[in-house]
Write a structure and sequence with these properties.
By secondary structure, the chain is an all-alpha fold. 71% of the residues lie in helices and 0% in strands. The chain contains 83 helices and two strands. It starts with a helix and ends in a 9-residue tail after the last helix.
Length: 1639
């Protein structure tokens, strides 16, 4: 405890806080500490509680505690502080039960606590050092080291006791771990002391002396030297190394310890061989040298060399792979060494430049370069460094050269006091030249080439970094840098070189050219420099400026230098160049190398040169420039761009020269000395002569004519030489050169002079030289020389351009225009069609375009033919494919592609030229028509070329549209229809070109409509057409369609649709699909405006339907029709109804598509209305229409009926028909009624012979057609069972039959009633027909109403009484069928409304009774009889009243009627009367039966089965009224006998019971033997036969037998076979075949 109190007292003396006293409970006494932030304090308290309770992961708790302490001010309350320190200290020192992570984390928490509670933490750690001398735990040392590292100055007061404590336990250090921990404390605390000695003023406590602090460290240093330097473990070595370097850095401050430090320096350097991580050695050495530099302690020379050698060896040893950080630290060591001993360090590095090791020399140069800037900053002399480097400039090593260049760069970046650095500048240019030469020679490996390129880049970097504003730089560089401008080998340095020279010249100009007194070596150096002549500088800089973007912008730099050197080149140029050169530079602004027109730029430079020469006005200077230009042509490779420009400049200089003899001499020289087999030399001659012609036109023509004449003036002996020259191409080369020269001269000639001599001396000479080149020994050949053809073509183009420009608006006429055109087109046609081998086509197109603008003008037909030939020579060329032939390269493929592109460009220019000949939309359409053939090609590359040509043509027309004077663009629709489908072509380029075409068309159309064409949106859409994503392409194409279609005027709709439909026949499926989509988009967008165009549109679609059978294409046609019908259903229907019958499959399909759409209700309604109004119920007047019109009018309803049938058959659901059924049924029934019994008009049978499609039953029956339509309608909305019922009942056949039509209507009505499809609207419509003028309509209505009377719903609809009254009235109708149906309807009241029948029985009975009097219509009588049978059955006899008698008497009058229906109905009614005869009428009916029973029995053999059956029923019902018991019983019992059997039974009973009745029966039969009805005659004869069979002949007297026999013999000869047979049978049965003998 005493020791602890002493420690606290020492701490207090040191200015530190005292440690809080320990309480009895083990905690700390409260300390006056400001309260922490509540959140932070609470978090620390919570974490400390967790540590005491040992909850969770202790390492994680410590880490969280460390984060909290570091994130706030770190202050905590005393109690919490004590708990945390105690817990952390305990865990840090725990030997067992605690992981290494927990111990380390506890140590880190103590370091974090020391930020605000340093004294408490340090007190805890000092206590743990155990002053008794026992070795402390490792982490106590580690924590002390961390504290010294983090809080160096605050540790100084504790240095003495800490180091003392360490010294007491050094002898106990045994393990490597402990040694590393102790060394860590020594290193960090020694560095802390060093930091304090350099910044003691910042400390609040009293200053501690340097000697005192060193004395505390010295014993430890001695122990370390004596005991630790020989340790073997790597980690221990590194720990000892760090401690030793830190202690050496501290002890070297004191003189008394310095010698010991120098003694240990070799050991420190020797650690490079001992320690594996040499970076630790370098850091230790760097720390030691930094201390030396800080206190400026001199280093012995031997030690300097030792340090330099060790560091230099580390840097230059290639076997040591140091990191970049390590190498930087090594270089820093040298810099620190030079800071202390600069001269010794430089001397050492200079000595290393003589080393045999390349790496050593490179390292030395790099270190010297690193010393440049620090040396300059310290104000020391740089020449010492320059002299050291000079000896290495001649080193052959490339790496050394790079190092020397790096040094030069560093040197030139600092102040240059003298011109001693010039050699280094010259070395930069020499190195660049050598590297360029090596690269130009080639034959270098990849590594060598890269090395040379790196050298060049370094040289350029040095020149770019030159700052001429640095003091002394002007004296160093001006004007010696000028000598590197002209030589071509320094071209790569021109950009920085020109910049330096320009800045130097400008600075000299500002200083007035005064540089002050020059050093002697400067003047000598300037005298030795080979400065260029002014003409040489001008020529060189102009050549460089000709390619402004080459070499990183050499041209721009050259122009700027020219302006700066204007005074140096010629004094008269200053003002002119001050204006011209900025203009030239302005032309280059914003122009990249790809965008710059090199030819136009060269012309600007040549014009600048001409202006400059005119300003100088010195013939000698101009001649000197001409000579210099000629000489510099040899400095560049042949051929080259620079050389070509120089020759043009020579021509300009000769044009500016007024010394004619010199000009003539120069032109002749170039004509004679050139090798005409070389294209470049021919061009050189042409450039010189053509350039001269600008001022010496006549002289140039004269010189050319003389040269051409000299070629022809050869002796005959030279014939074989001529032949040889022909084969070698020399002769053709000369002629080609002259041909080109004439054309180029024409371009440069003054206009008036040219026009005076163009025909004879230019065009005539061109053709003469061309023909001469095709002749050998007087024979003409068709030349295959491509160069000769190109020469003629280009010359013609240039002459045409020159003549056109010279003529201006006058329009000069060229008499040989057609001759030249024929020659050019011959060249085009002669080119191979399977490849593009030469630029002949392209050049010919250009020449033809220029020629076409000259007079005499060609006709439109001639221009069209010319265009067709030119287009046909390019489009069929094969597609561009990667070169696969042997020897082919990417450059070859690129050349071919470029040739193709330029040829297509030339074709576009030709199209533009021909368009300008007749600037109108009609001529544009004709030109596009020429291209249309190729647009529809199956080959995608041909389509792509055609689209490119279209885009070029439309672009040209757009630019010139204002000149046409047109107010509308008529072909817009057809052109859009033609080109739009290609926006979906398989080729992306084709899609883009098609989009470009549409863009041009839209802008043209926008001008005519004076509206915007949405260009801002169209342009990006066209760019998106090249998207590979199908969805993006679809969206872009869809949007483009909508935009374009909005601008198609309705008047051009048919043109657009025709073109689009033609596009659907394209061989390319995607284009065909696209055409259909464009078609639909247009109709969707503009369909509402096309009412007047509907017939023509439908006609266009209909005509193309047979050619489009694929479902994918046909779908678009059908959709188009449906869209039109959506907007204009009436117009579409009217147009479709114009198609002639029979309706073909295409027309039917168009009707079907209308049936499949949502607006089918409207379609059907329109058809119904038309069908309803097509005919008239009024009878025809006498003023009939012409027969053709009548037949056409008769066909109209049939077309509509058939259309309804087709539309209904295409319905997807029955809702539409169900909604329209109340209206549709009357219309169809009306049509059926109108056509029943009619024949098809003859015009419908002429076209194809049959109606509608093959297999239809409605061949020539219009009613059947209507029935089929009705059946189709019912099939849609009725269940199948009802349709089967109709067929089973024979309803369709009855409806078609005029005689049974009313029965068919009844059957149909009955089924409809049962199916529930008869509604009140339908009833109201049909009942109105009862008063129609047409008898057929009245019959249909009456039949419908007759059947309708069975429907009880009539009462609900309140239609019963009106219909009943109408039927009563119709009993007087002029049509017997109507009367018949009226009677039937009244009879049907029994089923529909029996109570109403009883109510109005009198009227009904009376009306029906009157019907029995309708002698003119048996069917009416029969129907009345049947109706009465129903009524009487319902009313019974009593309710019938007095009418019973009248009805009974009237009924028996029809028993023998000829009509079977009458007989059957009468028998039926008679039976009903018998059954209904009440007591009131029983006696009456019995009496009546006495006269009618025989007739009833006779009719049991009625020939009509129905009548026979009705008679049988009536006889049975009348049986109760017969007085014959046996007969009555037989009728009652034998109910299952047939009529014949029943007749036999009755006759048998009569024979037995009443012969009188038997005779009465015979008499009744006999009366009928001679009747008028053969059937009844035969039946009566059969009954007589039955009587004979059952009664014998006893009752037949002789008086009766003779007339009978005579009658039967007569009847045996009757015309009716049935009567003959019956009479013969009766003769045979009675034995009366022989006349009876007289008694």
């Amino acid at each position: 405890m005493r020791r602890l109190r002493a420690l606290r007292g020492l701490f207090a003396c040191g200015g530190c806080w005292s440690r809080p006293p320990v309480r009895e409970d083990g905690g700390r006494a409260a300390e006056s500490v400001p309260a922490a932030v509540p959140t932070s304090a609470g978090r620390v308290a919570s974490l400390s509680n967790r540590l005491q309770e040992e909850e969770g992961d202790r390492a994680e708790v410590y880490r969280e505690l460390e984060r909290v302490l570091q994130g706030d001010d770190g202050r905590v309350q005393s109690a919490v502080l004590a708990r945390v320190i105690a817990a952390a200290s305990r865990d840090m020192r725990a030997a067992q039960g605690v992981t290494e992570q927990v111990r380390t984390a506890a140590s880190d928490v103590l370091v974090a606590l020391a930020r605000c509670h340093f004294d408490s933490v340090m007190c805890e750690l000092q206590c743990r050092l155990r002053a008794l001398g026992e070795i402390s735990e490792d982490l106590v040392f580690v924590t002390l080291g961390k504290l010294a590292s983090s809080y160096a100055l605050r540790c100084v007061p504790f240095v003495g006791m800490t180091l003392f404590a360490l010294r007491t336990m050094l002898s106990q250090v045994g393990s490597s771990r402990t040694l590393r921990a102790v060394c860590s404390v020594l290193e960090q605390w020694s560095k802390a002391v060093n930091s304090y000695l350099g910044a003691w003023q910042q400390c609040s406590f009293p200053r501690v002396g340097q000697a005192q602090l060193c004395s505390s460290v010295s014993p430890l240093f001695g122990h370390a030297v004596g005991s630790w330097l020989g340790c073997e473990e790597e980690e221990a070595k590194q720990a000892v190394l760090g401690a030793m370097a830190a202690m050496m850095g501290l002890l070297v401050r004191e003189e008394e310890h310095r010698e010991r430090v120098w003694e240990q320096l070799p050991w420190l350097l020797g650690q490079y061989q001992q320690v594996q991580d040499t970076f630790r050695v370098t850091k230790a050495l760097s720390y030691f040298l930094a201390v030396l530099g800080e206190v400026q302690i001199p280093i012995p020379q031997d030690e300097v060399e030792a340090i330099g050698t060790a560091v230099h060896r580390q840097l230059s040893d290639g076997s040591k792979q140091h990191s970049g950080e390590h190498r930087s630290e090594l270089s820093s060591c040298v810099l620190l060494l030079a800071r202390v001993c600069p001269e010794d360090t430089v001397a050492f590095l200079r000595s290393q430049l003589g080393s045999r090791s390349e790496a050593a020399r490179v390292v030395s140069l790099d270190l010297l370069g690193a010393l440049v800037r620090p040396t300059a900053e310290r104000g020391q002399s740089l020449p010492l460094l320059v002299q050291a480097v000079r000896c290495a400039l001649g080193d052959p090593s490339r790496k050394v050269a790079r190092a020397a260049l790096r040094f030069t760069k560093e040197l030139l970046g600092c102040s240059v006091q003298s011109c001693s650095a010039w050699d280094l500048v010259a070395h930069v240019f020499a190195t660049f030249s050598q590297a360029s030469g090596r690269l130009a020679q080639g034959k270098l490996s990849e590594a060598e080439a890269q090395e040379a390129a790196d050298l060049q880049a370094l040289c350029l970097d040095i020149l770019r970094s030159l700052d001429v504003s640095v003091r002394g730089m002007t004296k160093l560089l001006w004007p010696r840098l000028l000598q590197y401008v002209v030589p071509a080998q320094y071209t790569g340095t021109l950009v920085p070189l020109c910049r330096c020279l320009r800045e130097l010249a400008e600075s000299r100009g500002r200083a007035g050219g005064e540089d002050g007194e020059e050093e002697p070596n400067v003047a000598a150096s300037r005298q030795r420099a080979k400065l260029p002549r002014p003409q040489a500088l001008l020529a060189r800089l102009l050549v460089v400026a000709a390619a402004p973007h080459a070499g990183g912008g050499c041209g721009v730099a050259a122009l700027r230098l020219l302006r700066a050197l204007s005074a140096e080149i010629h004094g008269a140029l200053g003002m002119v160049w001050a204006v011209k050169i900025p203009f030239l530079l302005q032309c280059l602004e914003g122009q990249s190398e790809s965008c710059l027109d090199s030819a136009e730029w060269e012309q600007l430079l040549l014009k600048f040169l001409r202006t400059s020469l005119e300003t100088i006005e010195s013939q000698a200077w101009t001649v000197g420039l001409s000579v210099e230009l000629s000489q510099q042509t040899g400095s560049y490779p042949r051929p080259s761009r620079e050389q070509a420009f120089l020759y043009k400049a020579v021509g300009v200089s000769l044009a500016a020269c007024r010394h004619v003899p010199y000009v003539r001499r120069e032109m002749k020289k170039y004509l004679l000395r050139m090798n005409y087999l070389e294209v470049s030399e021919r061009e050189a001659m042409i450039s010189v002569v053509a350039g001269s012609a600008e001022s010496h036109f006549h002289l140039a023509l004269e010189v050319l004519q003389e040269f051409g004449a000299s070629m022809e003036e050869r002796p005959v002996s030279g014939a074989f030489k001529r032949l040889k020259e022909y084969h070698q191409g020399k002769r053709a080369g000369r002629h080609a050169a002259l041909v080109l020269a004439y054309g180029r001269i024409a371009l440069r000639a003054p206009p008036e002079q040219l026009l005076a001599r163009v025909e004879s001396d230019v065009v005539g000479r061109i053709l003469r030289h061309y023909r001469a080149s095709c002749q050998v020994l007087g024979f003409s050949f068709s030349t295959k020389d491509v160069q000769l053809k190109l020469a003629l073509i280009r010359s013609v183009a240039e002459v045409s351009r020159a003549v056109r420009v010279a003529g201006g608006s006058r329009g000069v006429e060229l008499c040989r225009k057609r001759e030249l055109l024929g020659t050019l087109l011959g060249f085009v046609q002669g080119e191979p069609r399977d490849r593009l081998a030469s630029p002949v086509r392209r050049e010919a197109f250009v020449a033809v375009g220029h020629l076409s603008k000259l007079k005499p003008s060609l006709s439109r037909e001639e221009n069209r033919d010319l265009l067709d030939q030119c287009v046909g020579s390019v489009m069929p060329l094969p597609a561009l494919e990667p070169a696969e032939e042997e020897g082919a390269t990417a450059a070859d493929a690129g050349h071919v592609q470029g040739l193709h592109a330029r040829t297509m460009g030339a074709l576009g220019e030709l199209l533009t030229a021909l368009l300008e000949e007749d600037l109108s939309s009609d001529w544009l359409a004709e030109m596009l028509h020429v291209l249309e053939y190729w647009l529809t090609s199956a080959k995608e590359w041909e389509r792509e070329r055609a689209l490119q040509a279209c885009a070029q043509l439309l672009g040209a027309f757009e630019e010139r549209f204002e000149l046409t004077g047109e107010t509308s663009f008529g072909p817009f629709g057809s052109m859009v229809g033609l080109l739009a489908p290609f926006t979906c072509d398989s080729l992306a380029t084709s899609r883009q070109r098609a989009g470009a075409c549409l863009g041009h068309l839209l802008r043209i159309q926008g001008r005519t409509l004076e509206t915007g064409a949405e260009e801002d949106e169209v342009q990006p859409l066209c760019q998106r057409l090249s998207a590979p994503d199908a969805e993006a392409l679809r969206q872009a194409s869809s949007r483009l369609r909508k935009i374009v279609c909005k601008h198609i005027p309705p008047a051009q709709a048919t043109d657009f649709l025709s073109a689009a439909l033609d596009g659907m026949l394209s061989a390319q499926s995607t284009c065909a699909q696209a055409a259909g989509e464009w078609l639909l988009t247009f109709l969707e967008t503009c369909g509402g405006q096309l009412l007047t165009e509907v017939p023509e549109i439908l006609s266009i679609i209909y005509v193309r339907m047979p050619t489009m059978q694929q479902d994918t294409l046909r779908h678009f046609l059908l959709e188009a029709v449906s869209l039109l019908a959506l907007y204009h259903p009436g117009a579409v229907i009217d147009s479709l109804l114009q198609k002639q019958l029979p309706m073909d499959s295409d027309t039917e399909e168009l009707w079907r598509v209308l049936g499949g759409k949502f607006f089918v209700d409207h379609v059907l309604r329109v058809l119904m209305e038309k069908l309803k109004n097509s005919g008239s119920d009024q009878p025809r007047t006498s003023s009939a229409k012409p027969e053709a019109e009548e037949e056409e009018a008769a066909l109209e309803p049939l077309k509509m009926t058939r259309a309804i049938s087709v539309v209904v058959s295409a319905l997807q659901s029955p809702e539409a028909v169900l909604r329209l059924l109340p209206e549709l049924l009357p219309v169809l029934l009306k049509q059926i009624s109108a056509t029943v019994g009619k024949e098809m008009p003859s015009s419908a049978l002429i076209t194809r012979g049959k109606l509608f499609l093959k297999g239809h039953a409605s061949d020539d029956n219009p009613c059947r057609l209507s029935l089929e339509t009705l059946e189709a309608v019912l099939r849609t909305c009725l269940d199948g069972k009802w349709l089967r019922l109709l067929r089973q009942q024979g309803a369709w056949a009855a409806l078609e039959d005029p005689r049974a039509h009313h029965d068919g209507v009844c059957l149909l009505t009955g089924v409809l009633l049962r199916a529930g499809t008869v509604s009140l609207p339908l009833v109201l419509v049909l009942t109105r027909w009862l008063d129609a003028p047409s008898a057929n309509l009245r019959v249909t209505a009456a039949a419908f109403c007759a059947e309708l009377m069975k429907e009880p719903a009539l009462q609900e609809w309140r239609c019963l009484q009106p219909i009943a009254r109408a039927l009563l009235e119709k009993l007087r109708d002029s049509s017997s069928t109507v009367r018949q149906m009226a009677a039937r309807g009244l009879g049907n009241l029994v089923s529909g409304a029996p109570e109403k029948l009883r109510k109005h029985k009198g009227a009904v009975l009376e009306a029906l009774r009157r019907g029995l009097e309708d002698a003119a219509a048996a069917e009416v009588v029969a129907e009345s009889l049947l109706a009465l049978a129903k009524v009487v059955t319902e009313l019974k006899g009593k309710a019938v009243g007095s009418a019973f008698r009248d009805i009974a008497r009237a009924t028996k009058g029809f028993f023998d009627a000829e009509q079977a229906s009458l007989r059957s109905a009468a028998f039926t009614l008679y039976g009903v009367l018998a059954a209904s005869a009440t007591s009131r009428w029983r006696s009456f009916f019995t009496a009546e039966l006495g006269s009618t029973w025989a007739t009833l029995v006779l009719h049991l053999r009625d020939p009509d089965p129905g009548a026979s059956m009705a008679c049988q029923g009536a006889l049975r019902l009348c049986a109760p009224f017969l007085g014959l018991r046996r007969v009555r019983q037989g009728l009652a019992v034998n109910t299952r006998l047939s009529a014949a059997e029943l007749l036999g039974d009755v006759c048998s009973q009569l024979a037995q019971e009443s012969p009188e009745h038997q005779e009465m029966l015979y008499v009744a039969a006999r009366r009928r033997f001679l009747g008028s009805c053969g059937e009844l005659q035969a039946a009566a004869l059969d009954v007589a036969g039955v009587l004979v069979e059952h009664a014998g002949l006893e009752w037949l007297t002789r008086e009766e037998a003779m007339p009978l026999s005579a009658t039967l013999r007569v009847l045996r000869s009757d015309g009716d076979p049935r009567v003959q047979q019956a009479a013969a049978r009766l003769l045979r049965d009675t034995g009366l075949e022989q006349p009876p003998r007289r008694r």
